[in-house]
Amino acid sequence: MPKISIITVSYNAAETIGDCLESVASQTERVEHILIDGGSTDNTLLIAEGAPYTLSALVSEPDNGVYDAMNKGIRIASGDIIGILNADDIYYDKESVARVAEAFESSDADVCYADLVYVEQHDIGRVTRYWKSGSFAPGKFYSGWMPPHPTFFVRRALYEKYGLFRLDLGSAADYELMLRLLVKHQAKAAYIPELLVRMRAGGVSNTSLNNRLAENRMDRRAWEVNGLRPYPWTLFMKPVRKLGQWFMRPPSR
User: Fold this and answer.
1) Cα-based angle 130, 153, 114 (whole degrees, multiple of 5)
2) Are 128 and 118 in contact (CB under 8 A)?
3) Which residues span the domain enclosing 56?
4) Residue 35: which CATH number?
5) In-domain check, residue 253
6) Beta 31-37 vs 57-60: how paired, if at all?
7) Closest Cα to residue 3, out of 30, 34, 36?
8) What backbone torsions phi and psi does residue 227 show, to the nearest 5 degrees?
9) d(CA 81, CA 65)
10) What H or E segment, with its residue span, contains residue 120?
Protein backbone atom coordinates (compact mmCIF):
# COMPACT_ATOMS: atom_id res chain seq x y z
CA MET A 1 0.00 0.00 0.00
CA PRO A 2 1.24 3.55 -0.66
CA LYS A 3 2.62 5.60 2.21
CA ILE A 4 0.32 8.52 2.99
CA SER A 5 1.33 11.85 4.51
CA ILE A 6 -1.23 14.16 6.12
CA ILE A 7 -0.36 17.83 6.53
CA THR A 8 -2.18 19.98 9.06
CA VAL A 9 -1.61 23.73 9.23
CA SER A 10 -2.57 25.73 12.30
CA TYR A 11 -2.49 29.15 13.87
CA ASN A 12 -4.10 29.79 17.28
CA ALA A 13 -6.26 26.70 16.83
CA ALA A 14 -6.40 25.58 20.46
CA GLU A 15 -10.18 25.05 20.32
CA THR A 16 -10.02 22.52 17.51
CA ILE A 17 -6.49 21.13 17.12
CA GLY A 18 -7.08 18.30 19.60
CA ASP A 19 -10.02 16.95 17.60
CA CYS A 20 -8.00 17.16 14.39
CA LEU A 21 -4.96 15.35 15.78
CA GLU A 22 -7.08 12.63 17.38
CA SER A 23 -8.95 12.17 14.09
CA VAL A 24 -5.73 11.43 12.23
CA ALA A 25 -4.29 9.29 15.02
CA SER A 26 -7.42 7.12 15.08
CA GLN A 27 -7.18 6.14 11.41
CA THR A 28 -6.83 2.43 10.73
CA GLU A 29 -4.39 3.29 7.93
CA ARG A 30 -1.03 4.33 9.35
CA VAL A 31 0.03 7.79 8.17
CA GLU A 32 2.82 10.31 8.48
CA HIS A 33 1.23 13.33 10.18
CA ILE A 34 2.99 16.69 9.88
CA LEU A 35 1.84 19.80 11.78
CA ILE A 36 2.94 23.17 10.40
CA ASP A 37 2.09 25.94 12.86
CA GLY A 38 2.35 29.64 12.11
CA GLY A 39 3.73 30.61 15.52
CA SER A 40 0.59 30.28 17.62
CA THR A 41 0.34 32.39 20.78
CA ASP A 42 -2.48 30.38 22.39
CA ASN A 43 -2.30 26.78 23.66
CA THR A 44 -2.14 25.12 20.23
CA LEU A 45 1.43 23.90 20.67
CA LEU A 46 0.88 22.78 24.26
CA ILE A 47 -2.02 20.64 23.10
CA ALA A 48 -0.07 19.25 20.15
CA GLU A 49 3.05 18.49 22.18
CA GLY A 50 1.04 16.98 25.03
CA ALA A 51 -1.15 14.74 22.88
CA PRO A 52 -0.98 11.00 23.65
CA TYR A 53 0.10 10.26 20.08
CA THR A 54 3.22 11.29 18.24
CA LEU A 55 3.37 13.64 15.29
CA SER A 56 5.91 12.75 12.61
CA ALA A 57 7.02 16.39 12.51
CA LEU A 58 6.03 19.67 14.17
CA VAL A 59 7.23 23.01 12.85
CA SER A 60 6.20 26.30 14.45
CA GLU A 61 7.41 29.54 12.90
CA PRO A 62 5.99 32.60 11.15
CA ASP A 63 4.82 32.03 7.58
CA ASN A 64 3.28 33.89 4.66
CA GLY A 65 -0.19 32.46 5.11
CA VAL A 66 -1.93 29.10 5.05
CA TYR A 67 -0.72 28.05 1.59
CA ASP A 68 2.89 28.88 2.45
CA ALA A 69 2.46 26.59 5.47
CA MET A 70 0.99 23.86 3.26
CA ASN A 71 3.97 24.15 0.91
CA LYS A 72 6.34 23.73 3.87
CA GLY A 73 4.53 20.55 4.82
CA ILE A 74 4.63 19.17 1.28
CA ARG A 75 8.38 19.74 1.13
CA ILE A 76 8.84 17.83 4.41
CA ALA A 77 6.47 14.98 3.56
CA SER A 78 7.98 11.62 2.64
CA GLY A 79 4.75 9.85 1.67
CA ASP A 80 3.84 8.72 -1.83
CA ILE A 81 0.43 10.36 -1.37
CA ILE A 82 -0.19 13.72 0.31
CA GLY A 83 -3.42 15.00 1.82
CA ILE A 84 -4.17 18.18 3.76
CA LEU A 85 -6.46 18.36 6.79
CA ASN A 86 -6.95 21.81 8.30
CA ALA A 87 -6.79 22.26 12.06
CA ASP A 88 -10.55 22.95 12.15
CA ASP A 89 -11.48 19.73 10.36
CA ILE A 90 -11.64 16.01 11.13
CA TYR A 91 -11.94 12.83 9.12
CA TYR A 92 -15.44 11.44 8.88
CA ASP A 93 -14.55 8.12 10.48
CA LYS A 94 -11.60 5.83 11.23
CA GLU A 95 -11.62 4.30 7.75
CA SER A 96 -11.34 7.55 5.79
CA VAL A 97 -7.64 7.34 4.95
CA ALA A 98 -7.92 3.60 4.31
CA ARG A 99 -10.45 4.40 1.58
CA VAL A 100 -7.94 6.79 0.04
CA ALA A 101 -5.18 4.17 0.13
CA GLU A 102 -7.49 1.65 -1.53
CA ALA A 103 -8.46 4.15 -4.24
CA PHE A 104 -4.83 4.63 -5.22
CA GLU A 105 -3.93 0.96 -4.83
CA SER A 106 -6.77 -0.22 -7.06
CA SER A 107 -6.27 2.34 -9.84
CA ASP A 108 -3.62 4.30 -11.71
CA ALA A 109 -5.00 7.59 -10.39
CA ASP A 110 -2.74 10.59 -9.82
CA VAL A 111 -5.23 12.23 -7.45
CA CYS A 112 -8.38 11.24 -5.62
CA TYR A 113 -11.19 13.11 -3.91
CA ALA A 114 -14.46 12.37 -2.12
CA ASP A 115 -17.52 13.92 -0.47
CA LEU A 116 -17.60 16.27 2.50
CA VAL A 117 -20.02 17.65 5.08
CA TYR A 118 -19.92 21.05 6.74
CA VAL A 119 -20.68 20.87 10.46
CA GLU A 120 -21.40 23.39 13.22
CA GLN A 121 -18.33 24.99 14.78
CA HIS A 122 -19.13 23.66 18.25
CA ASP A 123 -21.19 20.61 17.29
CA ILE A 124 -19.39 18.40 14.77
CA GLY A 125 -22.34 16.02 14.71
CA ARG A 126 -24.69 18.65 13.29
CA VAL A 127 -24.47 18.81 9.51
CA THR A 128 -25.22 22.15 7.84
CA ARG A 129 -24.19 21.41 4.25
CA TYR A 130 -23.44 18.33 2.16
CA TRP A 131 -20.93 18.57 -0.68
CA LYS A 132 -21.44 15.58 -2.97
CA SER A 133 -18.64 15.79 -5.49
CA GLY A 134 -19.68 13.34 -8.18
CA SER A 135 -17.51 11.70 -10.80
CA PHE A 136 -14.76 13.62 -12.58
CA ALA A 137 -14.51 14.91 -16.12
CA PRO A 138 -12.19 17.80 -17.10
CA GLY A 139 -15.06 19.65 -18.78
CA LYS A 140 -16.94 19.92 -15.50
CA PHE A 141 -14.60 22.71 -14.37
CA TYR A 142 -16.04 24.83 -17.18
CA SER A 143 -19.47 24.60 -15.58
CA GLY A 144 -18.20 25.79 -12.19
CA TRP A 145 -17.43 22.37 -10.68
CA MET A 146 -14.55 21.66 -8.33
CA PRO A 147 -13.88 18.93 -5.75
CA PRO A 148 -13.65 19.83 -2.03
CA HIS A 149 -10.00 20.48 -1.27
CA PRO A 150 -9.94 18.83 2.20
CA THR A 151 -10.75 15.52 0.48
CA PHE A 152 -8.13 16.02 -2.26
CA PHE A 153 -5.12 13.66 -2.14
CA VAL A 154 -2.24 13.98 -4.61
CA ARG A 155 0.73 11.82 -5.52
CA ARG A 156 3.87 13.59 -4.32
CA ALA A 157 5.40 13.10 -7.77
CA LEU A 158 2.82 15.55 -9.20
CA TYR A 159 3.86 18.29 -6.79
CA GLU A 160 7.46 17.65 -7.74
CA LYS A 161 6.64 17.81 -11.45
CA TYR A 162 4.05 20.60 -11.59
CA GLY A 163 4.74 22.71 -8.51
CA LEU A 164 3.13 23.61 -5.20
CA PHE A 165 0.51 26.17 -4.17
CA ARG A 166 0.92 29.64 -5.69
CA LEU A 167 1.05 32.27 -2.97
CA ASP A 168 -0.08 35.06 -5.30
CA LEU A 169 -3.57 33.56 -5.77
CA GLY A 170 -4.86 34.25 -2.25
CA SER A 171 -7.78 32.07 -1.19
CA ALA A 172 -8.05 30.67 -4.74
CA ALA A 173 -4.69 28.87 -4.45
CA ASP A 174 -6.34 25.48 -3.94
CA TYR A 175 -8.68 26.07 -6.89
CA GLU A 176 -5.72 27.04 -9.08
CA LEU A 177 -3.79 23.92 -8.03
CA MET A 178 -6.70 21.67 -8.97
CA LEU A 179 -7.16 23.47 -12.29
CA ARG A 180 -3.47 23.08 -13.00
CA LEU A 181 -3.37 19.37 -12.21
CA LEU A 182 -6.74 18.21 -13.49
CA VAL A 183 -7.40 20.46 -16.48
CA LYS A 184 -4.07 21.78 -17.72
CA HIS A 185 -2.01 18.64 -17.09
CA GLN A 186 -4.91 16.15 -17.27
CA ALA A 187 -3.97 14.19 -14.16
CA LYS A 188 -6.00 11.01 -13.73
CA ALA A 189 -8.56 11.35 -10.94
CA ALA A 190 -10.44 8.77 -8.88
CA TYR A 191 -13.67 9.67 -7.12
CA ILE A 192 -14.46 7.99 -3.79
CA PRO A 193 -18.27 8.13 -3.45
CA GLU A 194 -18.05 8.34 0.34
CA LEU A 195 -17.99 11.00 3.03
CA LEU A 196 -14.36 11.63 3.91
CA VAL A 197 -14.19 14.86 5.96
CA ARG A 198 -16.22 16.86 8.46
CA MET A 199 -15.39 20.53 7.86
CA ARG A 200 -16.32 23.16 10.41
CA ALA A 201 -18.48 25.91 8.92
CA GLY A 202 -16.74 29.16 8.06
CA GLY A 203 -14.12 30.40 5.62
CA VAL A 204 -12.85 33.84 4.74
CA SER A 205 -13.99 33.77 1.13
CA ASN A 206 -17.63 33.22 2.12
CA THR A 207 -17.99 35.80 4.89
CA SER A 208 -19.06 38.82 2.83
CA LEU A 209 -19.99 39.98 -0.66
CA ASN A 210 -16.68 41.83 -0.96
CA ASN A 211 -14.75 38.69 -0.11
CA ARG A 212 -16.80 36.69 -2.61
CA LEU A 213 -16.08 39.25 -5.35
CA ALA A 214 -12.39 39.23 -4.47
CA GLU A 215 -12.31 35.44 -4.74
CA ASN A 216 -14.08 35.63 -8.10
CA ARG A 217 -11.26 37.82 -9.39
CA MET A 218 -8.68 35.38 -8.07
CA ASP A 219 -10.59 32.45 -9.62
CA ARG A 220 -10.38 34.20 -13.01
CA ARG A 221 -6.68 34.74 -12.43
CA ALA A 222 -6.30 31.03 -11.71
CA TRP A 223 -7.46 30.25 -15.25
CA GLU A 224 -5.25 32.96 -16.76
CA VAL A 225 -2.00 31.80 -15.14
CA ASN A 226 -2.59 28.33 -16.60
CA GLY A 227 -3.27 29.61 -20.10
CA LEU A 228 -6.88 28.44 -19.87
CA ARG A 229 -10.02 30.34 -20.82
CA PRO A 230 -13.25 29.75 -18.85
CA TYR A 231 -16.66 30.05 -20.44
CA PRO A 232 -18.48 33.37 -19.77
CA TRP A 233 -20.63 31.62 -17.14
CA THR A 234 -17.95 29.44 -15.50
CA LEU A 235 -17.07 31.67 -12.58
CA PHE A 236 -20.68 32.72 -12.02
CA MET A 237 -21.66 29.07 -11.77
CA LYS A 238 -18.91 28.21 -9.28
CA PRO A 239 -20.77 29.64 -6.23
CA VAL A 240 -24.20 28.93 -7.72
CA ARG A 241 -23.43 25.19 -7.88
CA LYS A 242 -22.91 25.20 -4.13
CA LEU A 243 -26.40 26.45 -3.30
CA GLY A 244 -27.81 22.94 -3.44
CA GLN A 245 -25.43 21.87 -0.66
CA TRP A 246 -27.72 23.62 1.84
CA PHE A 247 -30.69 21.42 0.91
CA MET A 248 -29.06 18.02 0.30
CA ARG A 249 -28.64 15.61 3.18
CA PRO A 250 -25.96 12.93 3.37
CA PRO A 251 -26.88 9.25 3.39
CA SER A 252 -27.19 7.57 6.78
CA ARG A 253 -24.21 5.44 7.78
Assistant:
1) 25
2) yes
3) 4-246
4) 3.90.550.10
5) no
6) parallel
7) 30
8) 65, 30
9) 23
10) strand 111-120
